[in-house]
Write a structure and sequence with these properties.
binds magnesium ion; 412 residues; 20 helices
Length: 412
Amino acid sequence: MESFPQPTLTALLGQAVGDAFGAPFEFSPQAQRHAQTSLHQKRYLDAVHDVGSRIRFSRIPGLYTDDTQQALVLLRAWMDLENPNDAAAVALRFQSIITKMFDHWVKGSQTGVHRGTGRNFRDAIMFGGPTNSAGVGAAMRIGPISTCFDSIDELLPWVVTVSRVTTTHPLALTGAGMFAAFCQGTAQGKSMDTILAQLHAWNPPADLDRAWSLNLEALSILETRPEADLLIFAQATGAANKTLGCAASGFALTTVPWTIHHAQQGSFSDVMAAVSKSGGDTDTVCAMAGCLAALRLGRGAIPQWMQHGLKGRESIDNPMQWDPIHSEKILTEAEYQDQQQRQKNGSSSESTPIAPQSLPTIWEEVISEKPAPNSALKTEDEQKQQPRQTAASEPETSTPNVPAKGQLGLFD
Ligand SMILES: [Mg+2]
């Protein structure tokens, strides 16, 4: 293939700017206020200076995080394969790439070139198999690639299989499917009612049937009732391992419907403000809502300041040229250098330049190697292997780029 379709590029840009927008105030109790400040001042906030985060959680303003990195990995896996409709093959390639990214050493990082990953994603890499996470990780990366499908009947089984690389939880798998269907349907100009009718008509595999119904019901709650009612409904399922404090907590059953609901109305900025008001996992809900809102409104509706201030823009505009190691290493190294600089003298991140991205030098080695075993399809005996070591860590470092979302437990 020569390039991705325009809706895919629009979805990716919406996702990346939303991700960068919400990242600085992730899990801040003042998330709503910070979102409004960012929109009013037309700039990406600084997690340390504007939000008050500790330096070890600082980020370069305007830089996307793991949500968009993983969306790019799915696009890369898709374009590399002769038959990308073969979900098992894409799953293998996705797993191989994220493992290579994890293993690639970056000074200061314990997760290689990955940035801001959740605990269950890291566990899925380190243990070589999926966890039983009901989190939103599978949904957060699925938006852009879902626009490459023509029909929902092809899309949904594909999403479930590819998502099984990192999670086995029915709520996470069906939540990813529901979000993917909205992105695909919106890219084709379908209304929310039309997409909902298609979703209700879909017959999921038996093991996903209840979770599918729960996700659809959760979405319908938000049509007429407040966030609190969604939390009561979700809590009553017993699937959350702790008390739900907000819809955007990262629990798939609340976070996916919250995101879809708020992406349906208003301007791109309106969507960013609305989806942030719950607080919680704001980089993820803004990334997902940004993806869906961009598909609904068009690329031109994304504010210019968001487009111009986005770091790593070359890869977002041209994912065919994106390299999972080389492109991301430049960005991740810059983020850790920025943290070190701040720890030394508290300087502003604006002083840290990011080297221009260039064509891949390492990627060719990556794709020529045999993919890692598909842990999602391993036998039980095979899964009882020793966990991987955090080879990407430097012995003397103690500044992991692991945000507070690592404390979320089951739906981390
Ligand atoms: Mg993130």
